[in-house]
């Protein structure tokens, strides 16, 4: 299973992202707490790996970083129960849900979808694949992010509103989950803007770190 899911980027499977899954982050942007998981999709064309640059999309004046734990699905399924959810996890990634916040605010006001704000090219920088056994308890991992060496986000997956088993179960009621799909589980507080030339460094406990530079497109 691991060798196959490690090809998640090449497989081009879907990216299901969860929004507002940390109370403090929902509050920092003045958003109400969700009563059920809030979902959106990012296209697989948004993936980049280390060595590639995050490009500020044309017309964007407020590009924000959001560090997130990504779940890589290892076994397909629909209507997965919370009890079975762990068996569908193939591994993990560390990911950034780069967000054109100005595009998102405009879309929110007009009731439009977030596709442009969340799905532009380079909006999903990811680490390499992390084997499932490297993270004994995904509900207790530290997520941090620095911009130019200054710590901006320092959270823990223990603060998620909806647990990982609940997310897998809920999402699979609506989207059949396939091997290589990625679930981005939401970001903790501390999101903020980045500009051209900035360097973003992020880490997941002592398991992985990654670095990306930002440039104007
Ligand atoms: C307000 C957002 O952009 C939602 C989101 O992506 C999150 O991680 O929370
Ligand atoms: Mg996010």
TrEMBL record:
Reactions the enzyme catalyzes: oxaloacetate = enol-oxaloacetate
Cited Pfam families: FAA_hydrolase
Gene3D superfamilies tied to this protein: Fumarylacetoacetase-like, C-terminal domain
Domain called Fumarylacetoacetase-like C-terminal: residue spans: 14-214
Keyword terms: Metal-binding
InterPro entries for the chain: Fumarylacetoacetase-like_C (IPR011234), Fumarylacetoacetase_C_sf (IPR036663)
EC number in record: 5.3.2.2
Enzyme class: isomerase
Highest taxon, organism lineage: Eukaryota
Family label: Belongs to the FAH family.
UniProt name for this protein: oxaloacetate tautomerase
Organism: Mya arenaria (Soft-shell clam)
